[in-house]
Amino acid sequence: MDTKTTILSLPEEELVYPGTRACSGCGLGIAYRAVLKALGKNTILVVPPSCLTVLQGLYPIASTKLPCINVTFASTAAASSGILAALDMLGKKDITVVGFAGDGGTSDIGLQALSGAAERDTDFIYICYDNEGYMNTGVQRSGTTPIGAFTTNTPIYGKAQAKKDVPAIMAAHNIPYIATCSAAYPLDLYDKIIKAKDIRGTKYIHIHIPCPPGWGFDPKDTVKIGKLAVETGIFDLYEIEYGKFSLTGASNKLLEKRKLRPASEYFRAQSRFKTASDELIKNIQQQTETRWEAYFEAED
Question: Domain spans of the chain?
């Protein structure tokens, strides 16, 4: 899609009712609203236990206007595959099936089912909203929790392991479309969902979701923190379309500036990194700069 969506061209219709059960400042609330606008009414959502289950609520007082099937933690992609098979038997070809799970239900508990669906090239959209931990159950570490981040089940110095790169895992499945997005850039997210709808096969969308209570920042700073992650180069916005990688949106603009903001600005703005050492942050800064140098060289 060549034309980028602006705030003026965004559809006015809302597919989520005002007033949800999300925490104050929840990044998922921003992303969810944009995603549903892009998906439209002919959509079935498949959601495992997660913050989204809390945000949406349960029938008959659910906040979403779309049909949603709540499934077990491990079965989001498997249940989505079954729904698609049932729709196919009924001859219903115009309904989009969307698995919408958190990072715990994607990178850890649900990874096997997602891998199986991707290997079969199941024709659905899988969205992972990544708030980098099991936030719904009290802020435990997940596979995508960054190194150095403190949670309720990590050592005092924070998680010792690096963040699992789920988009890269999905890219290894050779699926037709992968995109990374951020709640801080909802129009970029909207456009990528629109593009994914028009592609046949498995589409994987990974959304970076700042979480005020889990990450430790003021709820009013959700968008600021999300943008810092991108502007420091720690979280990259990109697409992999039929194997072709390209930076998008704010990350693509960094190619022109050729200058990243210091990683310390992002880390020191969140209390979850309060015990992260200066040496660790310096190492992450170096790793980030090395990755971006490769981007700069590729652009030249």
Answer: 27-299
Query: What span, in angstroms and rounded, lies between the C-alpha atoms of 267 and 282?
Result: 11
pLDDT digits (tens, 9 = 90+) for 202-232: 999 999 999 999 999 999 999 999 999 999 9
Residues written for the chain = 300
Q: What is the per-residue pLDDT across 71-91, written as a single tens digit (0 to 9) for each?
A: 999 999 999 999 999 999 999
Q: 45 and 100 in contact (C-beta within 8 Å)?
A: yes
Tell me the whole-structure pTM to 2 decimals. Answer: 0.97
Q: Say if CB 75 and CB 112 are below 8 A apart.
A: no
3-state secondary structure 73-113: CCCHHHHHHHHHHHHHHCCCCCCEEEEEEECHHHHHCCHHH
Superfamily, domain 27-299: Thiamin diphosphate (ThDP)-binding fold, Pyr/PP domains (3.40.50.970)
